[in-house]
Amino acid sequence: MSIESLDSTERRARITADIVERTGIDAAMIQRLVTAFYARVREDALLGPVFGAHVVDWDAHLARMCSFWASVALMSGSYHGNPMGRHIGLPIDARHFDRWLALFEETAAEVCPPPAADHFIERARRIAQSLELGIASVRGVRLGRGQRFHREDLTPPSPGDQP
């Protein structure tokens, strides 16, 4: 039976089983990765203040991030949030995404076996790129191929500009 002939629940279960078999990713690994990563984020000079100003309940945030990564890495469907909406108003740009990725990649490489780390990192890179593009767009910046969003590049509106 081909995967295309399965209903969506069965198809998702097969895809997830294949990912688990190839990478070894499971809920415990996701929790170790998320916990270790956010411990680093909280201590980071660039990212710590941003997260500290917006995350009130770290236990709830970590649980939400475990659910998010289970959905991203294993297609669990357990996360039902709006990552773009949560990031739009934050004072972040390319520097923050680069630092987030560097910490994430370091942590994944330390916490996960190589196939799992590669799986997580590939998805993290896509997420960072998507969020950066979305944040730039909301701020009226259209990025071309290879361009990055830097907040200092924003031109303040002139006094005569319409809001």
Structural commentary:
The structure is a single chain. By secondary structure, the protein is an all-alpha fold. The protein has one domain (8-144): Globins (Globin-like, Orthogonal Bundle), CATH 1.10.490.10. The protein is built from seven helices and no strands. Helix 6 packs antiparallel against helix 7. The longest helix has 25 residues, at 114-138.
User: What is the fold-level CATH name, i.e. the topology?
Assistant: Globin-like
Low-confidence stretches: none
What is Rg? Answer: 18 Å
Task: Report on the biggest sheet.
Answer: none
| CA-CA gap between termini | 57 Å
Number of domains: 1
Briefly say what this structure is:
It contains seven helices and no strands.
Describe the SSE topology.
Blueprint: H1 8-23, H2 27-43, H3 47-54, H4 58-74, H5 83-87, H6 94-111, H7 114-138
Helix pairs in contact: 2-3, 2-4, 2-6, 6-7
For this entry, give a set of tags.
single chain, Globin-like, 7 helices, 65% helix, globular
